C-alpha cells in the first residue's frame, strides 16, 4: 500500500505553501505547525514531510525548533528537508527528532559530504531530494537550475547506496493539476529497486490511486489537503 506523507512547509515557523517554489506566492495556512501535525496524527496518519523553506534559502537549517516541538509532542515519523548542508545541520536535525533527512542541494554541490552521510547513517535515514525542472535537477529551494539530468543524477546515487528519493516536478508543484506521472515512470524504469516518493501537483484522490497502481512507494500531499481537495478521512483508506 502506498505511503501517505502529508507535508508541512515552514517559513518563519508558520505552516505555509508556495506555488512552484515561488517565495512571492506564499499562503499561510496555520501559525502553529504543531496543531497541523496533531491533526494528521489524530486522523491515523503516521508520517510527516517537514520542510524548512527558510533553511533552503539560507543554506542552513533555521526552523529546527519547530521540528523539535513536533517530534517531542507527536509520534509521527518525520523526514526533514531544507537547508541541511553541513555536519552541524544534520546533527541538529537528528538530535531534534527527525527519523530521516532529505538532501538535495548538498547532493549536487557537495557530493563527497552527502556520500559520507550515506556511509555514516545508512540508506534508511538519508533520502535523496531529486527535484526536476524540465527533467533537470533544481536546487536551493528551486531557485537554481542545473544541467544534470534527473535520471542520471538519481541512478548515480542508487549506485552509492540511496534507497529512497523524493522527486518533485517543479512545474507541477502547488498547481493542483496532477503530478508528473511520466517522471516517476521514467525513474522506475531507470532504478527499479528505488523507493520513489512522488511530490507536487496532487489534485485529488484519483492521483493517489494512480500512483498506487504504478506501485510508487509513497506520495507527499500538501496543498490538496490544505485546500480541501482531499480530506484526512479520505486518506484513511490508504492506512494499513
Automatic annotation (TrEMBL):
Residues of the active site: 9, 131
UniProt pathway: Amino-acid biosynthesis; L-histidine biosynthesis; L-histidine from 5-phospho-alpha-D-ribose 1-diphosphate: step 4/9
This protein's GO CC annotations: cytoplasm
Listed EC numbers: 5.3.1.16
Entry's Gene Ontology molecular function annotations: 1-(5-phosphoribosyl)-5-[(5-phosphoribosylamino)methylideneamino]imidazole-4-carboxamide isomerase activity
Localization per Swiss-Prot or TrEMBL: Cytoplasm
Gene3D superfamilies listed in its UniProt record: Aldolase class I
Keywords: Amino-acid biosynthesis, Cytoplasm, Histidine biosynthesis, Isomerase
Catalytic activity reported: 1-(5-phospho-beta-D-ribosyl)-5-[(5-phospho-beta-D-ribosylamino)methylideneamino]imidazole-4-carboxamide = 5-[(5-phospho-1-deoxy-D-ribulos-1-ylimino)methylamino]-1-(5-phospho-beta-D-ribosyl)imidazole-4-carboxamide
InterPro entries, alphabetized: Aldolase_TIM, His_biosynth, HisA/PriA, HisA_bact_arch, Isoase_HisA-like, RibuloseP-bd_barrel
GO annotation, biological process: L-histidine biosynthetic process; L-tryptophan biosynthetic process
Major localization class: cytoplasm
UniProt superkingdom: Bacteria
Pfam families per UniProt: His_biosynth
Family: Belongs to the HisA/HisF family.
Protein name: 1-(5-phosphoribosyl)-5-[(5-phosphoribosylamino)methylideneamino] imidazole-4-carboxamide isomerase
Organism listed in the record: Dyadobacter frigoris
Gene name linked to the record: hisA
Amino acid at each position: 500500500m502506498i505511503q501517505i506523507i502529508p507535508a508541512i512547509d515552514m517559513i518563519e515557523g508558520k505552516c505555509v505553501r508556495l506555488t512552484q517554489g515561488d517565495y512571492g506566492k506564499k499562503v499561510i495556512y496555520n501559525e502553529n505547525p504543531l496543531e497541523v501535525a496533531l491533526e494528521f496524527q489524530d486522523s491515523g496518519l503516521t508520517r510527516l514531510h517537514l520542510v524548512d523553506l527558510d533553511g533552503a534559502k539560507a543554506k542552513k537549517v533555521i526552523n529546527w525548533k519547530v521540528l523539535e516541538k513536533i517530534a517531542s509532542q507527536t509520534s509521527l515519523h518525520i523526514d526533514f528537508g531544507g537547508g541541511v548542508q553541513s555536519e552541524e545541520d544534520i546533527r541538529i536535525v537528528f538530535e531534534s527528532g527527525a527519523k530521516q533527512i532529505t538532501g538535495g542541494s548538498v547532493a549536487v554541490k557537495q557530493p563527497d559530504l552527502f556520500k559520507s552521510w550515506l556511509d555514516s547513517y545508512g540508506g534508511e535515514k538519508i533520502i535523496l531530494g531529486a527535484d526536476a525542472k524540465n527533467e533537470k535537477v533544481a536546487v536551493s529551494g528551486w531557485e537554481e537550475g542545473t544541467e544534470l539530468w534527473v535520471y542520471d543524477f538519481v541512478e548515480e546515487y542508487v549506485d552509492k547506496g540511496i534507497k529512497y528519493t523524493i522527486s518533485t516536478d517543479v512545474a507541477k508543484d502547488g498547481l493542483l493539476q496532477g503530478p508528473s506521472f511520466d517522471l516517476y515512470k521514467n525513474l522506475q524504469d531507470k532504478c527499479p529497486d528505488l523507493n520513489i516518493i512522488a511530490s507536487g501537483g496532487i489534485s485529488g484522490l484519483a492521483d493517489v490511486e494512480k500512483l498506487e497502481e504504478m506501485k510508487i512507494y509513497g506520495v507527499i500531499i500538501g496543498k490538496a489537503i490544505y485546500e480541501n481537495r482531499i480530506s484526512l478521512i479520505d486518506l484513511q483508506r490508504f492506512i494499513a
